[in-house]
Amino acid sequence: MSAYAWYPTREFTERSNITAFCRRHGVDGGYRALQARSAADPEWFWERAVQDIGIVWHRPPLRVCDESGGIAFTRWFPGAYTNLVDSCLERRVRQGSGHAPALRWEREDGTRGVLTYGEAAAYSARVAGGLRGLGVMSGDRVAGYLPPGPEAFVLLFACARIGAVLVPLFSGFGAEAIAIRLVDADVRVLVTAGDAVRRGRRQDMAAVARTSLESATCVRHLVVVREPSGPPSVGGERGEPEASERPSPAGGEQEGRTVPSGPGGHDRVGLATTDWHRLAAAEPVPVVSVPVTAPFLLLHTSGTTGRPKGAVHTHGGFPAQVGSETRYNLDLRPDDVVFWVTDPGWIMFPLIALGGTLAGACVLAYEGAIDHPDVTRLRHLLDDHEVTVFGSSPSLARMLMGREPRDPVVPSRLRILGSTGEPWTEDAWRWYFAEFGGKRCPVINICGGTEVGGSLLASAPTLPQSPCGFAGPCLGIAAVVEDDSGAQPPEGQLGELVVERSWPGMTRGLWRARERFAQTYFGPRPGRWSHGDLVSRTGDEWFVHGRLDDVIKLAGKRLGPTEVEDAVVGDPAVAEAAAVGIPHPVKGEALWCFAVPADGRSLGETEAERIRGRVAGALGAAFRPARVVAVPELPRTRNGKVMRRLVRGLVTGEAPGDLSTLVNPACLDAIRAALHEQ
């Protein structure tokens, strides 16, 4: 990899949360010394970290962790009682910071508003009271099928306040994908938006939700956010509702249906429909004290085959984990505004919502496409809301590269850039760092996942950075790189990311699938967590090359797809690329590259031969692609991940598996056509 592209300024070396922690606890040597000590003695680190983060214990833990059940069933902070709402919202109100902004929100049509900590606490207390009026008790599951905005933010804390478990659903899901998750979680209440707007087009979310409930008969109550939506009786830039629009003082189904039912005028037998504003007008309820192991989040992650896996996260472990990452890696402070391009159905939404409020910062939620009506929307959004910490997937950078105006203005208050979701190509990383961030912001890569409850690897703002690199394992994480035999490969060679001890954010199992949990993560390497990411180390830095499922094996050599894709997109005729391994009778696998032409360019045989030469020149003659296929677009999720398994499956005829997160299914037919035409 290249030499360092960024060095920490005095702003980070002197004022960072990492530096303050090290000084307070007598750690000489900064982040590297703290990293080593926290991995060797995680109990020492987490005992001090939860105090620094501000976790509120209603009853203190008996110890930091109990590993007697083994890594898969380690208990963190055993004996403690808490509630994450106390740590995130109520604590700020008690400290006199209730007037500080907790959430800023904006919709694609320009509607925007602000919730203070005091308003967010009161709003969530009323919604929690409304849920209680629907019969929701501690441990019951409540699903949210919502776009990013105040309702999704408040629902998270409302559920947690009464000990209910939130089941987030991706706002782009179809009815079948929703129904599968509702039934799996045995959801009692589904909260949905009436509709959502993206690129100026309305999506009838309520209709999709009602269709899903035809088969998800476990759901007894449907709550619909009507339009125009906005926090009731809470100040904001929308203003107060007219008297005729104000919610009535009581909530719950006993008041009757308050929104239209399904297309035929009737809901499913046994289903009651309630208006969100009526729900939010209920009497507020206090925070319920729950055991530290009580679940608050059941978030499904889809594999390549089989039903979705439900990762379970708790009131104690998840806030501790995300509080550490947002405090020490993203360096969040009370005067920050943090915005991550994500969806309420992805892990980054609760991660930023909790991590941001634990830090006393303000979270920005945006509903709509960040390049609508044009690509300048994102920079205006960051400037208008004075965003200081911004994060997205590398795919966003690749989308914006070449589309933005020349010499764009860097958002004025931007201090830190973040990224997650997939590996970088070096060209995209350098564009993100130099053109988007003006070379003044470190790029904090984080790598983890839904089951991780945060991250396993991360960058640090107090260390110099190479393009695409990580500082290594997060604080308190004992991780190594291992090859197939369990040995640590030489520097620069690829291996799997493996974790040797539990961490607070690790899923407390898979929902109703204890054996699947043990087999999936601990079966390949007994006693250790097999993460499935392909990584390497160079010096003190770590690099992620993709998923093990995406590894390309050519003539006995293993290759990460991003290394190939980096070489391909270096060609001026290519905008995006996906590299996959296709079974070959002699080599084991042959390398195929699928390339999307840059605007105004074409990819014929001349360009394809040039691309083959570029890859061979960069990686060696053995890695010369067998085929370069020009395609109009690549299959991806809404948060930008390219679904390489679908590309490979179109060639091999493999079953596509779960397609619920695919946002551009029409591209599969286009790729099939390209395979036959070329």
Structural write-up:
The chain has 678 residues and is α/β, with parallel strands linked by helices. It has 20 helices and 31 strands. The strands form 9 sheets. Strands 6-5-18-17-19-20-21-22 form an 8-stranded mixed beta sheet, with helices on both faces. Strand 17 (337-340), helix 12 (348-358) and strand 18 (362-367) form a beta-alpha-beta unit. The protein is globular, with a radius of gyration of 24 Å. The chain starts with 9 loop residues before the first helix and ends with a helix. Mean pLDDT is 89; it is low at 233-260.
How do the strands of the widest beta sheet line up side by side?
6-5-18-17-19-20-21-22
Biggest beta sheet attributes: 8 strands, mixed
Distance between the termini: 34 Å
Strand content: 15-25%
Helix content: 25-40%
Radius of gyration: 24 Å
Using the alpha-carbon principal axes, give the shape: globular
Let me know the number of strands. Answer: 31
Which residue ranges are poorly predicted, with pLDDT under 50 across at least 5 consecutive positions?
A: 233-260
What's the helix count?
20
**Helix-strand makeup class:** alpha/beta
Mean pLDDT score: 89
Defining traits:
678 residues, alpha/beta, 8-stranded mixed beta sheet, 31 strands, 30% helix, globular
Give a topology summary.
Blueprint: H1 10-15, H2 17-24, H3 30-40, H4 42-53, E1 57-59, E2 65-66, E3 75-76, E4 81-82, H5 84-94, E5 101-107, E6 112-116, H6 117-133, E7 141-145, H7 150-161, E8 165-169, H8 175-185, E9 189-193, E10 196-198, E11 201-203, H9 205-213, E12 221-225, E13 272-275, H10 276-279, E14 290-291, E15 295-301, E16 309-314, H11 317-329, E17 337-340, H12 348-358, E18 362-367, H13 377-384, E19 389-392, H14 394-400, E20 416-419, H15 426-436, E21 443-449, E22 454-458, E23 479-482, E24 495-499, H16 514-522, E25 529-538, E26 541-547, E27 552-554, E28 557-559, H17 561-569, E29 574-584, E30 588-597, H18 605-619, E31 627-630, H19 644-652, H20 666-677
Parallel strand pairs: 5-18, 7-8, 7-9, 9-12, 12-13, 17-18, 17-19, 19-20, 20-21, 30-31
Antiparallel strand pairs: 1-4, 2-3, 4-14, 5-6, 10-11, 15-16, 21-22, 23-24, 24-25, 25-26, 27-28, 29-30
